[in-house]
Design a protein that fits this description.
Elements (H helix, E strand, L loop, with lengths): L4 E5 L3 E7 L14 E7 L1 H10 L5 E8 L2 H12 L3 E8 L5 E7 L5 E6 L8 H6 L1 H4 L2 E6 L5 H13 L3 E4 L17 E2 L3 H8 L6 H13 L4 E5 L5 E5 L3 E4 L12 H14 L4 H15 L12 H9 L1
Parallel strand pairs: 1-4, 1-8, 2-6, 4-5, 8-9, 9-10, 10-11
Antiparallel strand pairs: 2-3, 6-7, 11-12, 12-13
Helix pairs in contact: 1-8, 6-7, 8-9, 9-10
The structure holds adenosine-5'-triphosphate and alpha-D-ribofuranose.
Length: 306
């Protein structure tokens, strides 16, 4: 039986979002436009992005023993995502993200990890039998680095493809790169990982080459409104971004990585999966909120067909 499932290991947050005409200066109070609460967290967003592409999805992580945590679990379950491996942490509250969005759609995000910061090596060890049944394991950097490193090693050892979205950016041990199948940094994450300032295709190529030289099989650098750049040993491509009306880019990167993993898990080529994910992420930036903005498969296919 071919493996079809995708396991996402990562953070679950409640996003507390304030829309404001502009970001206030230090010491200044201004009147903002609106407040919304959304389901978020890079891990949970990416799990939703995988699941909405019609792929069986398992979420693993930690929430607090509180209303936010209970709400997260019930939302993901309604989405059809398995939450059996979301541990309820007895010490820490659920993670939250405080998000400011200005009139141009630019965001500023502060995350309080709470229970996400308690994901342990034991949690990862318990996931090994699940990894052995998954086509693909997706990981980000909103849980402790030792857990991330252990998860990458274990997933690779269990024969799953490993998709790493290195966000929020932090340096990784050099010996972990050969265990990563696809890495999906944005421009600033690529710069932090490689020391190459990414501003255009030429600099994206340089940064991607550094990551390939460290042993990653495929690099996809997301370039926001400039689209996505891909490099493997055998292939290179740039996909321009779709021309859409941007209202809120929160979870654009998560939608990209989740949609990509869904297709890669199902056996698509990197270029095919990137083209699809570029369409899914373009739709996400036209909508408000993290998880509410993530499109389903039919919407992506319709959009790409136009
Ligand atoms: P975020 O942190 O806001 O979730 P990110 O910084 O991780 O996003 P970006 O590189 O900004 O990731 O965007 C991810 C993908 O989303 C891009 O590669 C592209 O496919 C899509 N995208 C982002 N901005 C735009 C835009 N202005 N127009 C069309 N597509 C976009
Ligand atoms: O990538 C977007 C996510 O980052 C938000 O949903 C927020 O929770 C932070 O984790």
């Amino acid at each position: 039986m071919p493996r079809r499932r995708v396991l996402v290991i990562g953070s679950l947050n409640i996003d507390l979002v304030v829309h404001t005409p502009r970001i206030p200066h230090e010491g200044e109070t201004i009147l903002a436009t609106s407040f919304h609460r959304y389901f978020g967290g890079k891990g949970a967003n990416q799990a939703v992005a995988v699941s909405r592409q019609g792929v069986e999805t398992i979420m693993a992580g930690r929430v607090g023993q509180d209303d936010f945590g209970r709400d997260q679990i019930s939302r993901l379950s309604q989405e059809g995502i398995s939450t059996e491996h979301v541990v309820i942490d007895e010490e820490q509250p659920s993670g939250i993200a405080s998000i400011l969005i200005d009139a141009q759609g630019n965001n500023r995000i502060m995350v309080v990890p709470g229970a996400n910061g308690q994901v342990s090596l034991r949690d990862i060890e318990a996931l090994e039998p699940v990894m052995a049944e998954c086509a693909c394991v997706v990981i980000q950097l909103e849980i402790p680095l030792p857990a991330v490193v252990a998860a990458i090693r274990a997933a690779n050892a269990q024969g799953a493809k490993v998709v790493l979205n290195p966000a929020p950016a932090q340096a990784l041990p050099l010996d972990i790169y050969p265990h990563i199948t696809v890495i999906t940094p944005n421009e600033s994450e690529a710069e932090l990982l490689t020391g190459v300032r990414v501003t255009d295709i030429a600099s994206a190529r340089k940064a991607a080459q550094v990551l390939l030289d460290r042993g990653v099989l495929a690099v996809l650098i997301t370039l926001g409104s400039k689209g996505v750049y891909g490099l493997t040993l055998a292939d290179e491509f740039h996909l321009p971004a779709h021309d859409v009306k941007v209202v809120d880019t929160v979870a654009a990167g998560d939608t990209f990585t989740g949609a990509l993993a869904a297709l890669i898990g199902a056996g698509s080529s990197l270029a095919e999966a990137a083209r699809y994910a570029n369409g899914a992420a373009a739709l996400a930036v036209t909508r408000h909120g993290a998880q509410p903005s993530i499109p389903k498969r039919e919407e992506v296919l319709d959009f790409l067909a136009k």
